[in-house]
């Protein structure tokens, strides 16, 4: 990586690199140069077709914080000696360098409701902090990423052009997806409802995208690649999808899937700590819908990819994406089953 690091200055001549695992998209290294530490990432251009859009978004946010004299901790990229936001190598692609936040850690799996609260607090704080940013200046880094109508259309197309043998064996799953089409209809209504505001939205609110201190208190949000204009349902929904159940989409024993009420209450309390005054009544009334929206969309994406012979999500065994889809369908059903009860926690 010398050709990359040297673009940042001579102080990196004798730097050491340590691979950091856990990320699914970008490659990441911890860089140590003397007493200073940094994070180096190679941006996956198969996912992010224009890395400059990511860099421009982060610079826009950093400039906004400076303009409003905010002390919010934003992990932004360090410029190269040439003043570029990203380093480039013709063979290896685009890289970014950021500061390493000392005495910080990431958590890969949410284990306590306190962790869920801290994460939700940080994601709510992130969106609230940038509530006055002109989102028309924010780039879309992955078009249609959380566009439920688009995902449903992909599902319908897969029924026509996908693997017919797999499709015939999944009549129950297809029926369940079609039965919940009303979730797409509500999403379409949201798009034209002035009570739902486009905001600076993270779009990938898994627990590993929050930095914690040694006492498990949240420090800040990281991994800003998917920051785009969006609706609150994307961030709240992804927290519900990944925090509520003690097992994730890889679990094959669906009896282990359940909705943990205390974790739901933690998401509500943490997110609304900063966002209660920001959300309209219509948005507050759709808090549970956020979870249904994201879980349903992920079920669709897994099932669509299964019908398309596993082109997007890597399958480690036969029918892997079908299991993932069934897992999410089960999680969706269990959240629907507790919808009325959980809604009382939001409206308190």
Rg value: 21 Å
Q: Approximately how much beta-strand content do the residues carry?
A: 5-15%
- Decide which structural class fits the backbone: alpha+beta
How far the N terminus sits from the C terminus, by CA atoms, comes to 53 Å
- Widest beta sheet: strand line-up: 1-2-3-5-4
Helix content: 40-55%
Name the average pLDDT. 94
Number of helices: 13
| SSE string | HEEEHEEHHHHHEEEEHHHHHH
Task: Characterise this structure.
The protein is an alpha+beta fold and 348 residues long. Helices cover 45% and strands 12% of the residues. The chain has 13 helices and 9 strands. The strands form 3 sheets. Strands 1-2-3-5-4 form a 5-stranded antiparallel beta sheet. α8 packs across α11 and α11 (287-307) packs antiparallel against α12. The chain is globular, with a radius of gyration of 21 Å. The N and C termini lie far apart (53 Å). The relative contact order is 0.13.
Describe the secondary-structure layout.
Elements: H1 2-5, E1 16-20, E2 27-33, E3 36-42, H2 51-67, E4 87-89, E5 93-99, H3 113-129, H4 148-161, H5 164-168, H6 171-179, H7 182-191, E6 199-201, E7 210-212, E8 218-221, E9 228-230, H8 232-243, H9 261-275, H10 281-285, H11 287-307, H12 320-337, H13 339-347
Helix pairs in contact: 3-9, 4-11, 8-9, 8-11, 11-12
């Amino acid at each position: 990586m010398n050709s990359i690091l040297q673009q940042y200055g001579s102080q990196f001549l004798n730097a050491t690199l340590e691979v950091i695992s856990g990320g699914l998209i970008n490659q990441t290294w911890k860089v140590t140069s003397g007493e200073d530490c940094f994070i180096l990432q190679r941006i996956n251009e198969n996912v992010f077709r224009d890395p400059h859009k990511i860099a421009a978004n982060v610079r826009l946010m950093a400039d906004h914080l400076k303009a409003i004299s905010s002390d919010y901790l934003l992990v932004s990229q360090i410029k190269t000696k040439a003043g570029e936001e990203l380093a480039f190598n013709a063979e290896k692609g685009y890289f970014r360098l950021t500061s390493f936040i000392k005495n910080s850690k990431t958590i890969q799996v949410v284990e306590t409701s306190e962790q869920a609260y801290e994460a939700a607090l940080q994601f709510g704080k992130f969106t609230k902090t940038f509530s006055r940013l002109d989102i028309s200046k924010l780039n879309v880094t992955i078009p249609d990423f959380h566009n439920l109508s688009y995902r449903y259309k992909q599902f319908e197309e897969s029924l026509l052009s996908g693997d017919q043998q797999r499709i015939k064996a999944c009549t129950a799953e297809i029926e369940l997806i079609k039965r919940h089409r009303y979730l797409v209809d509500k999403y379409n209504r949201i798009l034209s409802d002035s009570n739902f505001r486009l905001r600076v939205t993270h779009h990938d609110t898994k627990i590993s995208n929050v930095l914690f201190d040694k006492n498990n208190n949240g420090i800040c949000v990281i991994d800003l690649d998917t920051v785009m204009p969006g609706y609150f349902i994307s961030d709240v929904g992804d927290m519900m999808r990944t925090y509520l159940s003690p097992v994730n989409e890889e679990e094959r024993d669906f009896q282990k899937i359940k909705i943990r009420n205390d974790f739901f209450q933690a998401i509500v309390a943490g997110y609304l700590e900063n966002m209660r005054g920001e959300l309209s009544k219509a948005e507050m009334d759709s808090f549970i819908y956020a979870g249904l929206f994201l879980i349903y969309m992920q079920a669709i994406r897994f099932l669509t990819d299964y019908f398309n012979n596993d082109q997007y999500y890597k399958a480690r065994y036969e029918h892997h994406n079908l299991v993932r889809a069934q897992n999410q369908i089960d999680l969706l059903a269990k959240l629907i089953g507790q919808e009325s009860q959980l809604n009382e926690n939001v409206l308190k």
